[in-house]
């Protein structure tokens, strides 16, 4: 069974930094694309950054130049280095991974989600 476990969230002052980690397991096919999404209370979940197995990255405009996503394919782990944090970055950050799952012997690409880790940025 695929599992994604996030860690690294916490409380930080504006201008500070945090590093999030997401360890993925349970897929014999690996994880093609992994990424970070975030959701603040009363708001929709939004993309923060994604990264492919080959290292191609995409970032939301709001975090470009401040956040860096990376991955260690050997460990099936991704990271999000967050610098120059702002109060508006406060949210629950979720790890997402795309992987192949077998249903009755047939492959399907499925999105998997972690349970989230809370990041709070104080002003």
Strand content: over 45%
- Computed Rg: 15 Å
Average of pLDDT: 95
Estimate percent helicity: under 10%
Specify the overall morphology: elongated
Largest sheet: 7 strands, mixed
Low-confidence stretches: none
Number of helices: 0
Q: In angstroms, what separates the terminal alpha carbons?
A: 40 Å
Query: Which class best fits the helix and strand makeup?
Result: mainly beta
Q: What is the element string, with H for helices and E for strands?
A: EEEEEEEEEEE
Total number of β-strand segments? 11
Structure description:
The protein is an all-beta fold. The model has no long low-confidence stretch (mean pLDDT 95). It is built from no helices and eleven strands. It has strands at 3-7, 10-13, 18-25, 31-39, 46-52, 57-59, 67-72, 77-82, 91-103, 106-113, 117-122. Strands 2, 4, 5, 6, 9, 10 and 11 form a seven-stranded mixed sheet that branches. It has a four-stranded antiparallel sheet with strand order 1-3-8-7, with no helix packed on it.
Which descriptors would you attach to this protein?
mainly beta, 4-stranded antiparallel β-sheet, 123 residues, 0% helix, 7-stranded mixed β-sheet, elongated
Briefly, what is this?
The chain has 123 residues and is mainly β.
SSE order and pairing:
Layout (H helix, E strand, L loop, with lengths): L2 E5 L2 E4 L4 E8 L5 E9 L6 E7 L4 E3 L7 E6 L4 E6 L8 E13 L2 E8 L3 E6 L1
Parallel strand pairs: 2-11
Antiparallel strand pairs: 1-3, 3-8, 4-5, 4-9, 5-6, 7-8, 9-10, 9-11
């Amino acid at each position: 069974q695929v599992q994604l476990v996030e860690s690294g969230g916490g409380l930080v002052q504006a201008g500070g930094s945090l590093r999030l980690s997401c360890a993925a397991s349970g897929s014999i096919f690996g994880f093609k694309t992994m990424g970070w999404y975030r959701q603040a209370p009363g708001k929709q979940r939004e993309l923060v950054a994604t990264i492919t197995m080959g290292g191609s990255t995409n970032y939301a405009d709001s975090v470009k130049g401040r956040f860096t996503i990376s991955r260690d394919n050997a460990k099936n782990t991704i990271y999000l280095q967050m610098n120059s944090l702002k109060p508006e970055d406060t949210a629950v950050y979720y790890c997402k991974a795309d992987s192949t799952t077998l249903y009755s012997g047939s492959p399907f690409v499925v999105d998997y989600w972690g349970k989230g880790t809370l990041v709070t940025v104080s002003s």
